[in-house]
Amino acid sequence: MITTGEGDISIELFDDLAPLAVENFINLARTGFYDGLEFHRVAPGFISQAGKPGDGNDGSGYVFNDEFSRELSHGAAGVVSMANARSEEHTSELQSR
């Protein structure tokens, strides 16, 4: 459960299809990494992004590889995934359509 000023967000995690992303998200959440962070990019009807610290750092301090599955897509509003700046460079940012 993610609690925001606009309400709670419940997320279903697919550790069988994206084990690195799920492990990364759970570990960052457990350590309090996301506590107090704001949605830093909101483009209505397009995308919302959160998980980037406001201290000038780009994220968790490490990166991990892309994970793709034909069973998962951004075909509807409310789908959440790890954002990346470039291929193979995921850190801590989440994005949703």
Describe the model.
- It is built from one helix and six strands.
- Helix content is 12%, strand content 28%.
- The chain has one helix at residues 19-30, and strands at 2-4, 7-9, 39-43, 47-50, 80-84, 90-96.
- It has a four-stranded antiparallel β-sheet with strand order 3-4-6-5. It has a two-stranded antiparallel ribbon with strand order 1-2.
- By secondary structure, the chain is of the alpha+beta class.
Largest sheet: 4 strands, antiparallel
Secondary structure category: alpha+beta
Going across the major beta sheet, what is the strand order? 3-4-6-5
Record field, number of beta strands = 6
Give the percentage of residues in beta strands.
Answer: 25-35%
Which descriptor suits the 3D outline? globular
Helix content: 10-25%
- Residue-averaged pLDDT: 77
Give start-end ranges of low-pLDDT stretches: none
Distance between the termini: 18 Å
Q: Output the helix-strand order.
A: EEHEEEE
How large is the radius of gyration? Answer: 13 Å
Number of continuous helical runs: 1
In brief, what are we looking at here?
Helices cover 12% and strands 28% of the residues. It has 1 helix and 6 strands.
What descriptive keywords fit this protein?
97 residues, alpha+beta, 4-stranded antiparallel sheet, two-stranded antiparallel ribbon
